[in-house]
């Protein structure tokens, strides 16, 4: 045990064992049931070739749009290929990401790297079931070009800039398709989504030397419009399908896209923000990079049609409510707080 602690980067085992020693009476039975559901099997997410969106044949483009919309409604998740982001750029980004996370913990936690956005474990957890065995950097797009954010990792800056531009372009393309599918102008996102609140998150799930049922990332939905995920081949992502947890089979040639809470609210529940989680791995570490398409904090999230399932709210109001719920109960409540 001592040897494991010494090698741990970051010291996740120390934080987890501290939680085990605390009284944790705030996690309700409902919370336990939701988080500990049995995994019923492996699934392959709907795989969509985005080449259809640039087809000169209207029928091919419409068929691609319909596949994206159907997956967003039935699964809340799908995979995309021919997405316009080169395999070389993805490989370079992963190489730089690994280099950053291999840095000693003390340096990551104190050197101000990537806008001082380093996070690890779950400081807000009040029980082991709310603990995430992971570390991450959360970088607003507005900070990605700032040289001061990179310190000794100068080679990361150029790659990160290219990666952010490519992911942003893809996110807006897909969001535009989903908006148009419901009869609205794709210019909607140009008006409310900007770099001040969109961000990248570099994730690392270190090898977990303890129980096999430890969360790498606790069950949650995303509080944005759209998330694009680039992951490695280790696996661990699970999502809720038909009230059961299913394991997502990794696909090295595809990016994963999932609908966030704001798109579910705006679409009046046509598109689904689905609960998902990552399970820790006892043998191999896992890496992923997520791009989050978010509006400005004062943007009003209404419905694309009436009667609306949810009352109007701003993104800032939504984030504040989520933070308050996590602080009080240890878990996110999300959209049910904003029902009419």
From TrEMBL:
Transmembrane segments: none
Record flagged with keyword Metal-binding: yes
Keywords: Dioxygenase, Iron, Metal-binding, Oxidoreductase
Identification of the protein by name: gibberellin 2beta-dioxygenase
UniProt GO MF annotations: gibberellin 2-beta-dioxygenase activity; metal ion binding
Residue ranges of domain Fe2OG dioxygenase in the record: 196-295
Domain of life per record: Eukaryota
